[in-house]
Design goal:
The chain is of the alpha/beta class. It has 6 helices and 6 strands, in the order H-H-H-H-E-E-E-H-E-H-E-E. The chain has helices at residues 3-13, 22-29, 40-59, 74-79, 142-155, 187-197, and strands at residues 86-89, 103-106, 128-134, 156-166, 199-206, 212-218. The structure holds S-adenosylmethionine.
């Protein structure tokens, strides 16, 4: 759950749910929610999704050229692996489409995705040789991040490779990103995830803009 939003709702409501009005929500978060909520948890999740949707569908801008390791360089790196299927999780504007072979992009908020849905909502029996998780498994709690990585591990073929770019919890400059909770990835967590899911760390580097770039390989069972 988004702790920033929950903290604001707890402070504002003072244990009185009638204080969470549509007017308060629009004034505080700049969004409206369609869903009828009865608990603070439901309000938090509905507001979180609406804030994410607003920012990533209308305000966030891509710049693939700015990355030292996790941008356009990946085109050759991934194609050289000769993958039969590549999944771009949280693909944004789907900029690798047509450049990396056999790629499909999923994203719940960007209309350029092949499938407009979240990582956890993507259901398939297909296995991918390569999965890209570039700045997209980075929102919300540690449990949510771990569940999203677990989902990617199930989608990855044995011996498959996952390329990551992660944010160490730094906010984006645009005010429309104010309520987004950026998970603070760090190297010990990257190692913990590898141990938990049977992944080998092939590479780990400091990318531009204080991001970390790293590569996991799923160890063959
Ligand atoms: C910082 S952008 C990075 C986009 C692209 N991968 C890139 O490198 O330019 C983060 C992306 O993650 C997407 N995203 C957010 N939550 C997601 C989720 N639960 N599942 C999949 N994608 C998500 C956003 O819509 C956004 O396009």
């Amino acid at each position: 759950m988004n702790k920033k939003i929950l903290a604001e709702l707890l402070t504002h409501s003072q244990n009185d749910m009638t204080r969470i009005t549509a007017e308060y929500i629009i004034q505080t978060f700049g969004i409206t929610i369609d869903k009828t909520c009865t608990t603070l948890e439901e309000y938090t999740n509905a507001i979180d999704i609406a804030c994410m949707n607003r920012y990533f569908s209308a305000y966030w801008e891509a710049d693939m050229k700015k990355w030292k390791y996790s941008g356009l360089q990946l085109i050759d790196e991934v194609n050289n692996l000769r993958p039969r299927a590549v999944l771009d999780v949280g693909c944004g504007y789907n900029e690798f489409k047509g450049k990396i072979k056999n790629l499909i992009g999923i994203d719940p908020y960007n209309v350029h995705a092949d499938w407009k849905l979240s990582t956890l909502d993507y259901k398939t029996d297909k296995k991918y040789d390569v999965i890209l998780c570039l700045g997209s498994i980075n929102f919300g709690s540690r449990d949510k991040i771990t569940a999203e990585v677990a989902k990617c591990v199930t989608l990855l073929a044995d011996g498959g490779t996952m390329f990551f770019r992660v944010n160490p919890g730094l906010p984006h400059p645009k005010p429309e990103s104010q309520w987004i909770e950026f998970y603070a990835w760090n190297v010990p967590f990257i190692i913990e995830i590898a141990e938990q899911f049977g992944l080998k760390i092939l590479d780990i580097r400091d990318d531009s803009n204080q991001r970390k770039y790293f590569v996991y390989r799923k160890i063959q069972s």
